Amino acid sequence: MIPIYSQKNRIKLVVVIIALIIGAATITYTNILVSKLSEREQELVQLYAKGLRYMINAPSDDNIVFIEEEILSSNTTVPVILTDENENILDSKNISIPENISDKPEKINDYLQGEIGKMKEQHAPIVVPWAEGSVNYVFYKDSELLSQLRFYPYVQLIVISCFALVAYFAFSYSRRAEQNRVWVGLAKETAHQLGTPLSSLMAWYEYIKGNPKFENEPILEELGKDVRRLEIITERFSNIGSVPTLRDENILQVTQNAINYLQNRISRKVTFTVESAFSPDITAKVNVSLYDWVIENICKNAVDAMEGRGSITIQMVLLGKSSIAVDITDTGKGIPKSKVDSVFLPGFTTKKRGWGLGLALAKRIIDNYHDGRLYVKWSEVGKGTTFRIVLNR
């Protein structure tokens, strides 16, 4: 069964691809505009240099006035610096001088020399020859508008990315809230539906228990265990959506009790081993009925993975002073690496029958209700899987 969430992940992937295409198109188009504007500014500076060359070498006439007013003065955006052949500054245009040095000629000269260094990094200077054989240089750099335009698409992408992240987290929060309502509603309704037949079963059990005809019948004891188990299951469903009470419990004993009950109700070809690396009196903060449910779900999945034949080993170790790890290892088919991240998704299952809710519910119980962690510690196809439960002490 393919979970609905994988379909949503495909939709997210499509959205991301579309966003990347839009971003790439934006950058490409902006770069085209930048290239055209850069060419225009270079032509403007070339025209400025030609006008300057004409003024230097031509005799005085009315054309010089026209060139000065209409060509040289028309450049109001591109920063330029005019120097002699030794790069001594003769003039500058469209360069903002900091106010703190505006009345200090030496510092202004140093500042403009620094600007010449920046201009050399962007463009080669334009040579303006003199009639006597000497030359002047026109240094220039991109205008402020062109510089801003170069970075505009990246700023735009950052803004779009921030908006997308906000939208994504809002969507995720909304989806989780919807999932929570579905979980709680389903659990409460299940507990309600179990209540009536359970009350009837308890009454019949007490009636049969009091009948001398069934005295010392082994089946009566097993029936009592199953009735009590149904009570626990009903309590579990009732706890979903509520804040469960966590108590300091002997984690080794609680785990062993859960295994003892489960072992009598599965294939006899499956062996269980419970091992502890700490003293038997170590406690952890758990809700027993919910914790039993987690152990049951993980072990039942392990039995299915082993096809009713193999071994399950439960090892408990201390993780520092504040937490305990419960490792559940089976000898089943293992989980492919590509599916490890999906095993806890509701609806994910490799069985022909089943809702794929067991591990999802187990993770929810540990992560949300016990403030712990449940994850796949190790898995290898053909060898088995280890699930780790981390609990607080």
Topology (elements, then pairings):
Elements (H helix, E strand, L loop, with lengths): L3 H54 L4 H10 L8 E5 L4 E5 L11 H18 L3 E4 L5 E6 L3 H66 L8 H22 L7 E4 H13 L6 E7 L6 E4 L1 H18 L4 E10 L3 E8 L27 H12 L3 E8 L3 E9 L1
Parallel strand pairs: 6-8
Antiparallel strand pairs: 1-2, 1-4, 3-4, 5-7, 8-9, 9-11, 10-11
Helix pairs in contact: 1-2, 1-4, 4-5, 6-7, 7-8
Would you give an account of this structure?
This protein is an alpha+beta fold and 393 residues long. The protein folds into 3 domains: 4-142, no CATH class; 170-238; 246-392, 2-Layer Sandwich (Heat Shock Protein 90), CATH 3.30.565. The protein has helices spanning 4-57, 62-71, 105-122, 144-209, 218-239, 251-263, 288-305, 358-369; strands at 80-84, 89-93, 126-129, 135-140, 247-250, 270-276, 283-286, 310-319, 323-330, 373-380, 384-392. Strand 1 (80-84) and strand 2 form a beta hairpin. Helix 4 runs antiparallel to helix 5 (218-239) and helix 6 packs across helix 7. It starts with a helix and ends with a strand. Mean pLDDT is 81; it is low at 1-5.
